[in-house]
Amino acid sequence: MSLIITGGAGFIGSKLARCFLEQGHHVLALDNLCRGQREYIETLPYQERLTFVQADASDAAALLEVCAQYHARHPVSALWHLAANSDIPAGIAEAAVDLRDTFMTTYAVLEAMKKLGIKKLAFASSSAVYGDHGPDVILREDMGPLLPISNYGAMKLASEALISAAAESFLAKAWIFRFPNVVGVPATHGVILDFIRKLKENPDRLEVLGNGTQQKAYLHVDELVEAMLFIAGRDNGKCSLYNIGPDDSGCRVADIASAVVKRVSPEAQILLGREGRGWVGDVPKFRYCVDKAASLGWKPRLSSLMAVSRAVEEIAKQEEIPSC
Ligand SMILES: NC(=O)c1ccc[n+]([C@@H]2O[C@H](COP(=O)([O-])OP(=O)(O)OC[C@H]3O[C@@H](n4cnc5c(N)ncnc54)[C@H](O)[C@@H]3O)[C@@H](O)[C@H]2O)c1
Fold this sequence. Notes:
The chain is built from eleven helices and 15 strands. By secondary structure, the protein is an alpha/beta fold. It has two domains: 2-182 and 218-243, NAD(P)-binding Rossmann-like Domain (Rossmann fold); 184-216 and 248-286 and 302-320, Alpha-Beta Complex (UDP-galactose 4-epimerase, domain 1). Strands 3-2-1-4-5-7-12 form a seven-stranded parallel beta sheet, sandwiched between helices. Strands 6-15 form a two-stranded parallel ribbon. The protein has a two-stranded parallel ribbon with strand order 8-11. Strand 2 (26-31), helix 2 and strand 3 form a beta-alpha-beta unit. The two termini are 34 Å apart. The site of nicotinamide-adenine-dinucleotide has 28 residues, from helix 1, helix 5, strand 5 and strand 8.
């Protein structure tokens, strides 16, 4: 099989590319490298089956050209759309960021798929589409109305809507996966990486955004990739939505700070903020219902805390290696 991954040089995209390559598939990884890194792609195995192209996925004409050239050589059976802005505060500061990287990339992907007759799409959506329902509501795929509180969440939800419409007209199959917080390596962003980098700059103190009580679901990237492939191999719906996450109430930011301090700089003092949320647009507490994925037979092995502990170790090692 041949597959296209947008955002293929990013954290999750490069892991997904590795998995497809190990399964014997051909992969086109497309990325504008605004956050992803060439190195994540160049170090993957089976380079002879991997094509990397640096391109802007929000530029419909450029995306079509890249995909058309690849599709002519390796007929593509599915496109995995992961390119997006992954910096939520940046999208709050400047709405154009999420409009371009989170929404227009989806529009351009769908236009290219329509023109080239690529009929299967997997989409990386997010818990951010739900908005803030408070700590007591368990987020289910069928709940609504959905009122996101960040431009990122809004543009993910708008992308889901566009994909739903495309499934009605020209797609044969669409999987929409709503990720929780995903952790692991190669880390490009996220709370663990932020804490480690802050401690590298100042080993004596760690300032936490918010009061540390923010409590969210964390999933290890290896389990996320496994879950997506598991579901895609079994789900028969036309346009299917799945929460993917751990089956627990999550892990507190204060606990993540403690784990990072213990690993990286045990003498450091943790300085908690006053606010209940880390930044505007941050959903401080949420819990996922993952019954739908479980009904297909997928269950995570790691709790949020276990995923975080593993990722702290992995990211600490990643940050020890001097970048060339
Ligand atoms: N990591 C998480 O916790 C998490 C949670 C929910 C959803 N997601 C979604 O999963 C996907 C992958 O996220 P990630 O964590 O790997 O982040 P990431 O930033 O590492 O990956 C996104 C990639 O998309 C690329 N990109 C951005 N805009 C682009 C554009 N216009 N054209 C081409 N490439 C572009 C970036 O360079 C980056 O490599 C994203 O869609 C993200 O919204 C991630």
